[in-house]
Each structure stands twice: as structure tokens, then as C-alpha cells.
Amino acid sequence: MNSVLLLILGFILLYFGGELLVRGSVNLATKLNISRLVAGITIVSFATSSPELFVSLEAVFNESSDIVFGNIIGSNIANIALVLGCTALFFNINISEKTLKIDYPFLFFATISVGYILYFLGAISFFIGIILLIILSAYLYYIISNSRKEVKDQINIKDQEEKTSYINCLFYIILGIVLLKYGADFLVSSAIDIAILLNIEERVIAVTIIAIGTSVPELATSVVAALKKEVDLAVGNIVGSNIFNLLAVLGVTALFKEIEIMNSTILSFDYLFMIILTAIFGALIYMFNKGNLNKIKGVLLLLIYFGYIYFSLIS
User: Fold this and answer.
1) Contacts of 21 (CB under 8 A, 6+ apart)
2) How many whole angstroms from its chain centre is CA 174?
3) Which of 35, 141, 122, 86 is nearest to 304 (CA)?
4) What secondary structure does DSSP assign to 31-56, as a single string?
5) DSSP 158
6) N or C: which end of the chain has fewer CB within 10 A?
7) pTM of the complete model
């Protein structure tokens, strides 16, 4: 009973922590005059990926590396199939040319590259973690530099002036981080207890309950962004969050401790599914009504996600 209550409390803290972190990050990005797409891929993505980072750090210190991989892989699957699926179900999403030419190809590259490393090495070491962070830094430098050169993509901050101070932005960010830290603590400890009690593999708990829980900030952000007609922010948030999960979360976690795959199903089923789903996402935005995600595609993504959850549970 206590584990269930802690699990619920963990979800609540992650949700509100993610909300505060997103609010502070978006306001800060606006004041810094960064384009909406780049804000979504950088600051907002980092903010919404913070739950995955805290959960992964907590898990690796608890000798639960399967939760680290399961959390990241499950979150990336949930981001594309569940979050984008739900968003497209209610809103017509137009994908920008920049996302089609730069951001999605980089996401696919990161997905394949990390999979290649895991397949041949079976772990993410300190050295590999450094490489992942260097690659991410180079990508961020490139898109931010290009954004500042493109006047048409700049955010008009006149309406935002004096409404939110830098102090308020930092306050939201710090408070959000604190809530996320404790939310991650409660979520991981309770999930492990429940997995042991029900004799369920940590991998299954990670790719389902924990992955959905840590994807709540992405879902909330994307829906709110779509409601406000900020489509670039919604799409940038998802693509950027998946990139951050693969490169930043795994990279930073590996700096503290090597992350070794303990359950081979993570590679043979979960990671393979993530690669296939990322490819399907690419097909949907490139081949069928290019640059658009409509209700039909949203339903398809949701059906794929529910199918994944079903096969994860029966496995």
C-alpha cells in the first residue's frame, strides 16, 4: 500500500516539477530571444527530459540498470507514439522544414548510433558518455547558431517584457528541479518494490509505468503548445526530448557509473521497437502528406503504442 502511495506521489511531483521547469525554461528562452523551434528542442526538451535524468541517476545508484535503459527507451517510445499520437488526435500538426532537414535526421542518427554501441559493447561507459555529450553539444551549438542568424524565426518578445523577470524564471526552474528529484526518488523506489511484489521484471515496469510517468511533462507541454498554436514548440519538444534522452541522460548517467545491460530483451525487443517506431515516424512525416501529422496518423501512433504495451506485459 505504501509503495502504491509513493508511486502516485512520485507521479504528482514529477508532473508539477515538470510543469514548473517548463514554464521557467520557456520564459527564459523567450527573454533570450530564441526561436520557438529551437526553444522546444533545447531548453524545453532539457526541462521535460529532467525526470528521465533524475530517474536514471537514482536507478543506477540503486544497481537497477535495467530501469535506466527501460526508462529512456520507454520514454522515447511514449513521446513519439503516445504524446504525438494524442496531440495529433486533437490538433493538426505541421512539421517545419528545419525539423525535416536537420532535427529528425539527427534523432534517427542518435537512435541508430546508441543502438550500435549497445549491441557491440553491451554498456555505456564513462568514455562513451563523454562522446555522447560532445555530439549533443555540437548539435546544440549548430542549431542555436543558425537560429540566431534567421531573423524570421526569432521570437517577438515585446509582449513578454517586464512580465517575467529572470529571477522568476530561475525560481521556477530550481523549484521544478527539486520536485523532480523527489518525484524520481519515490517513483523508482516504489516501482522496484511493486515489481518485486508482483514478480514482474524491472524492465517491464520501466518501459510502462515509469516511462509514461516521466513522459507526462512532454505530454502536457505538447498539448498546451498545440492549444496556443505553437506547433514548432510541440514538435521540437518531442524530437529534442528524445535526443536529450539518448545523448544527455545516458551520457550524464554514465559519468557517474557505467550502465550495463542486464536483460537482453532490452536490446532484442525494446530498443529494436524504438528504432522501428522512429522509422515509422519518419515515414509518416516524409511520405504520407509530407510535413503533416493528422488524426489518422495520431490514431495509428496510439495503436502502435498500445500494441507495444500489450506485448511488453505478456512477454
Assistant:
1) 47, 48, 50, 172, 173, 176, 177, 180, 217
2) 19
3) 86
4) HTT--HHHHIIIIIHHHHHHHHHHHH
5) G
6) N
7) 0.80
